[in-house]
Specification:
The chain has 255 residues and is of the alpha+beta class. Helices cover 26% and strands 33% of the residues. Keywords: DNA-binding, Transcription, Transcription regulation.
Length: 255
């Protein structure tokens, strides 16, 4: 009969220790360090590297590896010249037809955008298939850095048919919500979307625009949205910092 032990449902079972019980020393330190982090408040600076190494009886090299993993996971933040701090909770965006603006404001966060590109280009074969166009048809391309409370957290690239929405650039303020513009000014009704999520590393250009380390895991979303007639509205590629962002969805049984 198995012995019943208590554990937190939001943590790895048995703290991530394999059944044979052998773990790298840095991982054991990481677990202890995470327990320490949970007792500290958001924005609290960690004790010095020397103090932590002595506290956990490990070398500084081992400690640095544990700290680095917690930074990648978004539990800690390194600030050049200031130290390492306890990170705030991750932002949560619903996997639904909710705009970035609305999703952030629901969490009490003020969204904004830096416009990188707002241009008219021609559709290649794949984009034409996604938007039910002919290759070479004109499309609008909008690329923007996504910001939450003055912190850069993502990069979004969106394509829309210039034939279907010829007035788009005349009525859109690219620093504001594209969805609000489409629904309120162009009469578009969103019905559903197809979305694919994967993990990637940012390109050097993307990392520079977002202001993050190129080694940081990113969450990449590909989306094609459709209107109530089943016609595609947009194709979007959204890249989010994995250390600051997560997604939530409510699933329903198929009937």
């Amino acid at each position: 009969m198995n012995r019943v032990t208590s554990h937190r449902a939001d943590r790895p079972v048995r703290a991530g220790v394999p059944d044979h019980g052998r773990v790298p020393r840095y991982y054991a330190v990481k677990t202890e360090l995470f327990d320490l982090v949970e007792t500290l408040g958001e924005g609290t600076v960690l004790p010095s590297e020397r103090e932590l190494a002595e506290r956990f009886s490990v070398s500084r090299v081992t400690l640095r590896q544990a700290v680095s993993e917690l930074v990648l996971e978004g539990k800690l933040i390194r600030r050049q010249g200031s130290g390492t701090f306890v990170a705030p909770p991750k932002l949560v965006q619903p996997l639904s037809l909710v705009s970035y603006t609305e999703g952030m404001r629901r969490q009490g966060v003020e969204p904004s955008r830096n416009v990188i590109t707002c241009e008219r280009v021609t559709a290649d074969e794949q984009l034409a298939r996604d938007l039910l166009l002919e290759a070479g048809d004109p499309v609008f391309h909008l690329e923007r850095v996504l910001i939450a409370d003055d912190e850069r957290i993502g990069l979004e690239s969106t394509y829309l048919s210039a034939i279907r929405f010829p007035r788009l650039l005349d009525v859109l303020d690219p620093t504001t919500s594209l969805y609000a513009c489409l629904t309120e000014k162009l009469g578009v009704e969103f019905l559903d979307a197809e979305e694919r999520i994967e993990t990637v590393l940012a390109t050097p250009r993307e990392a520079l625009l977002i202001g993050t380390n190129p080694a940081l895991p990113m969450l990449l979303l590909h989306r094609v949205s459709f209107d109530t007639d089943g016609h595609p509205i947009e194709r979007a590629r959204s890249l989010y910092r994995g250390d600051r962002f997560s997604f939530i969805a409510r699933l329903h049984a198929e009937r």
